[in-house]
Design goal:
mainly alpha; 2 domains; 71% helix; 134 residues; single chain; 6 helices; c-terminal domain of poly(a) binding protein
Length: 134
């Protein structure tokens, strides 16, 4: 049976790890033992933060929508409630982008949401809504 020398595969594995550790500080970028641990940890962070990024962007869109809706005399929750009652199915990303780049179109959407919430003005609002003064 022929002898197998494993230097080539080991070197390729090490090279892959060192390449992934590029930009790390100190020995984390060039010592294989430490680089391996650092790369493994960085992969865990990357996996976690791909989910966190989605959360952060949704929060940003909600904040932008709240600010834009208040300029038109509605709160964010009233805006979303009005859109649902009007049957307008637009996600928060599109609405937020519309509020920034196309304010006239956003104003039209808000007007439709306000029309759908007209029951609040008719005096049919419940006790809580009257107390809040919505």
């Amino acid at each position: 049976m022929a002898r197998v020398k494993r230097g080539v595969t080991s070197h390729a594995k090490h090279k892959k790890t060192i390449k992934a550790a590029k930009g790390f500080y100190g020995r984390r970028k060039n010592t294989i033992r430490i680089a391996k641990q650092a790369v493994e940890r960085s992969m865990q962070y990357a996996t976690r933060d791909r989910r966190t990024k989605k959360r952060n962007f949704r929060a940003l869109w909600v904040q932008r929508l709240n600010a834009a809706a208040r300029e038109h005399g509605l709160s964010y929750s009233r805006l979303i409630d009005g859109l649902n009652k009007a049957g307008i199915e637009m996600d928060r990303k599109v609405l937020s982008d519309m509020a920034i780049h196309e304010p006239d179109a956003f104003a039209a959407v808000v007007a439709q949401a306000k029309d759908a919430l007209s029951y609040l003005k008719d005096g049919n609002a419940n006790e809580y809504e009257r107390a809040v003064g919505a």
